[in-house]
Design a protein that fits this description.
binds zinc ion, metal-binding, queuosine biosynthesis, elongated, EC 4.-.-.-, 5-stranded mixed beta sheet, binds ligand LPXRUNBV
Length: 117
């Protein structure tokens, strides 16, 4: 199996309003997010690629247009946890690129959430 990954960065604010008031993440705060998209294929295409990294530019445009320097509570349906963000980006990518195998989202240098069906 071949696997490729590409990383995307954006900055955004959010507030996890479903958490108790004394939870730090119930307060308005922000993160420098990292999104990693992974694609997998048993065989390479004629170019020797799982998929051309350049094709993934559409995700950069989507992130820049809808997520970068936005308030995620206004963007996401439901809580903007890293898990929900990973699933959201997985669904967006899988609808375009059937080789999509997983999406990982980091909110802080120490945390990663992954959606891998
Ligand atoms: N499973 C999840 N837990 C938490 C999420 C999440 O999306 N999924 N999100 C948050 C906060 O939004 C934020 O990410 C804070 O994370 P946390 O690691 O708790 O914060 P710190 O960087 O301040 O951690 P320290 O260990 O104190 O440095 C919370 N949990
Ligand atoms: Zn947060």
């Amino acid at each position: 199996m071949f696997r490729i990954r590409k990383e995307f960065h954006f900055s955004a604010s959010h507030q996890l309003t479903h958490l108790p008031d004394d939870h730090q993440c119930a307060r308005l705060h922000g993160h420098n997010y990292i999104v990693v998209v992974e694609l997998a294929a048993e065989a390479l295409n004629a170019d020797g690629f799982v998929r051309d990294y350049h094709d993934l530019k559409a995700l950069k445009i989507y992130i820049d247009d809808h997520f970068d320097h936005r308030h995620l509570n206004d963007v996401m349906n439901g809580p903007s946890t890293a898990e929900n963000m990973a699933k959201h980006f997985y669904d967006w990518c899988a609808a375009r690129w059937p080789e999509t195998s997983a999406v990982l989202v980091s909110e802080t240098p120490k945390t990663w959430a992954e959606y891998r069906p």
